[in-house]
Design goal:
Elements: H1 2-16, H2 25-38, H3 47-61, H4 65-91, E1 100-115, E2 118-128, E3 139-145, E4 159-167, H5 180-187, E5 189-202, H6 211-233, H7 237-247, H8 255-264, H9 274-294, H10 296-299, H11 304-322, H12 327-344, H13 351-365, H14 373-399, H15 404-434, E6 436-438, H16 441-466, H17 473-494, E7 500-502, H18 508-523, H19 532-540, E8 551-553, E9 560-564, E10 568-571, H20 578-587, E11 595-596, E12 608-611, E13 614-619, E14 622-627, H21 633-639, E15 642-645, E16 659-660, H22 662-668, E17 671-676, E18 679-684, H23 685-689
Parallel strand pairs: 3-5, 10-11, 14-15, 15-16
Antiparallel strand pairs: 1-2, 1-4, 2-3, 4-5, 6-7, 8-9, 8-17, 9-10, 12-13, 13-14, 17-18
């Protein structure tokens, strides 16, 4: 009887949520994309399309609600799977397989990102002299060292010539770390490199470029012009941040300033997203509507509200294009555009439906963005905010109107509530991707967000509007003054003890559980959504399940790290693979920097004892040998339960726990070894990723 009543209650709750069913369609798309990326092999090419067609047919010919909902879910899942399959096939491009150079090459500039100490150039149509590639890369990303003077004049479409050293996209630094190869694959980048010497400009091609390239060149010209204008007027930290807010180009921001903003928890201000796009659209909307109302002859004959919306849409789009049209920017513009379109059609914008619309568009056309931090953090923040304010606004309507003082206090409270909700929603994803959390983010955002909303961004819009007339000096000074206040407050909070916390990267299952549980809480309206709370709590405890590897061996055999007293990694040297060593420290949540182990066998360091030929690690009265010299392999084989060798092992040695040698590192990339009561657990970069189009296997 009780079970039957429970099913009846669940069915009634399910039917009561009918208006919310459509919100789960983008979730189905995302699950299909996530399953594709989690697979260790490439699935058959047309499986996504086939299942989509079958699910659609089932949806059309099924009569029951449960059957139609199930068919719609399967169809959404399969459509997401098919979209990412199509995207993978469409962006596939040649990749070089080894370090090459120095080489002479020419190519066409696609994008230039200026920096304080140089620039980064994206080069298309490269022609590499005297190098026989079976399939030359289509796009190359090059770093130019030194001052930006030699590349300041470059624009998209220019032909240039230089000498450079090229290398393939690097693999992840350790299992489950950020996949540089996957990112390069979906960007179409087939090689990275750095320029030796100067960059020489070549005459432009006689053939006129297509319209798309002309438009891109025009946009980049404007972006670079604005950046250089801002830097020319304010060549300091505030000017660099102001340029980033206006054009999305962060290259001029010093690393210490970026670190201060991360430690204070306000680095999100540099990501052009809902705050910036909404402010631009809102300011233009308010200004146009006020101007129409100020002129009676216009206000009586023209619907000022619709005229303001009609002008706010292109203003928001222009700013989004100017800022680089990243994933958070796309999401913000799609939602803002839908809201303004609702104004034009005399309809109210449905908040959560606009989020679903934006997510569906982004996932269909750029499905690879699902696994990136920009998509995850942007949609997590806006989904949580809309869900929370839906409940809050319902309660406020029940309480009735408040006075002027009440509205002011309510605004201050809303700033704090918004900061708390957005920070809480994005924190799991920030920890998963960056292993970094800001303890005083609430205080920093309580200062920074109002300053950005009421001071910095309005002054920035005035700067852009006045720049064509060379009247931008005063508004830019005002903008930079606001930025300076934000940086000063952030610097003070970031300097406090315990301001920044390093947390070990949680396992992938925990972030998946947090995502689904959070969506369950946000998308449903009834009480049964509270069923997601325990799953959310378990997912948030993900860092507690993270276990740092006992030994990490770099895939190029340049560096070996051994965990010392669960507090710091001791490495084979302090000069090679410094980027990898720092990433290992960050992902394992250790505050102390890796230190090189001592080669004095008479002075052991915990369980580690080393000499010039290698090391031994004591593991529960067993010995693991770390060998860097082939001459010691025979002795290591007799005494050790496991051998980790940075050189090839060609003998028939078979220790109980096996061997990791140079050949294994070459095939599978970086190895992470964790010792358990049942022996070692070995995870490798390529073993975790599997055989996918973006994974470089030596036998392919």
């Amino acid at each position: 009887m009780g079970i039957g009543r429970a099913f009846e209650n669940a069915g009634a709750a399910w039917l009561a949520e009918r208006p919310q069913w459509a919100l789960w369609l983008p979730v189905g798309l995302g699950i299909g994309i996530a399953v594709y990326f989690a697979m260790p092999f490439e699935p058959p090419a047309f499986i996504g399309i086939a299942v989509s067609a079958a699910g659609l047919c089932a949806f059309l010919f099924t009569g029951s609600d449960i059957g139609r909902v199930a068919a719609a879910g399967i169809t959404a899942f399969a459509v997401g799977f098919a979209c990412v399959q199509w995207r993978t096939a469409s962006v596939a491009a040649p990749v070089i397989d080894k370090r090459t150079g120095p080489v002479r090459l020419t190519g066409t500039v696609e994008r230039v990102d200026l920096r304080e100490n140089g620039a980064r150039i994206l080069l298309s149509e490269p022609h590499i002299r005297r190098v026989d590639f079976s399939a030359p890369p289509r796009i190359i990303q090059l770093s130019v060292r030194g001052g930006p003077e030699q590349v300041r004049h470059l624009l998209p479409g220019d032909r240039i010539r230089m000498t450079a050293i090229l290398r393939p996209p690097p693999p992840p630094t350790m299992p489950d770390a950020f996949d540089f190869q996957r990112r390069a694959f979906f960007l179409g980048i087939g090689a990275y490199g750095f320029v030796l010497g100067n960059v020489a400009a070549l005459p432009s091609a006689a053939r006129a470029p297509p319209l798309s390239k002309k438009l891109r060149r025009a946009v980049e010209t404007v972006r670079l012009g604005i950046t250089q204008r801002v830097r020319g007027l304010r060549n300091d930290e505030s000017g660099a941040v102001a340029a980033a807010l206006l054009t999305g180009q962060r290259g001029y921001i010093a690393e210490n300033v970026l670190q201060i903003m991360r430690d204070a928890g306000i680095a999100h201000l540099l990501a052009i997203s809902g705050l910036h796009i909404g402010l631009v659209a809102g300011i233009v909307f308010a200004a146009v509507r006020l101007a129409c109302a100020a002129v009676p002859a216009v206000g009586l004959r023209l619907n000022g509200k619709k005229a303001a919306a009609l002008l706010a849409i292109p203003a928001a789009f222009a700013y989004a294009v100017l800022a680089g049209f990243t994933v958070p920017t796309e999401r913000a513009f799609l939602m803002t555009g839908l809201m303004l379109a609702g104004v034009l059609m005399d309809r109210r914008a449905l908040g959560m439906r606009s989020v679903a619309w934006a997510a569906a568009v982004v996932l269909i056309f750029r499905p690879e963005s699902l696994v990136g931090p920009g998509f995850q953090m942007s949609f997590a923040a806006v989904t949580a905010l809309i869900a929370a304010y839906t409940v809050l606004s319902r309660r406020r309507r029940q309480r009735g109107a408040v006075g002027t003082i009440g509205r002011c206090l309510r605004y201050l409270g809303d700033v704090l509530i918004t900061t708390v909700i957005a920070s809480a929603a994005t924190a799991p994803f920030a920890i998963y991707h960056f292993q970094h959390a800001a303890a005083f983010g609430l205080l920093a955002n309580a200062v920074a967000v109002p300053l950005a909303a009421f001071w910095v961004m309005p002054a920035g819009i005035a700067t852009l509007a006045a720049m064509p007339f060379s009247l931008d000096t005063l508004p830019l000074q005002a903008m930079c003054a606001g930025v300076r206040l934000i940086l000063v407050s952030a610097g003070y909070l970031a300097a406090l003890p315990g301001a920044a916390v390093d947390i070990a990267a949680p396992p992938s299952w925990s972030i998946g559980m947090v995502t689904l549980a959070g969506l369950w809480l946000a998308l449903w309206q009834g009480r049964w959504r509270l069923l997601g709370v325990p799953y959310l709590a378990v997912g948030l405890m993900g860092p507690l399940f993270a276990s740092p590897p006992d030994i990490i061996i770099d895939g190029d055999a340049r560096l070996v790290a051994v965990l010392h007293r669960n507090a710091v990694y001791l490495t084979s040297n302090g000069r090679s693979a410094r980027f990898e060593a720092e990433d290992w420290r960050q992902r394992t949540g250790h505050t102390a920097r890796p230190a090189a182990w001592r080669n004095d066998a008479e002075r052991p360091q915990g369980r580690l004892r080393c000499d010039a030929q290698g090391c031994t690690v004591a593991v529960d009265r067993r010995v693991v040998a770390i060998s860097t010299n082939p001459a010691t392999l025979a002795d290591d084989c007799r005494r050790s339960w496991m051998i980790v060798a940075t050189v090839p092992v060609r003998s028939s040695c078979k220790p109980p726990w096996g061997i990791i040698d140079r050949f294994d590192l070459w095939r599978y990339g970086t190895h992470a070894v964790t010792f358990t009561g049942k022996g070692p657990v070995i995870r490798t970069v390529n073993g975790v990723r599997g055989r996918r189009p973006w994974v470089r296997w030596p036998d392919q």
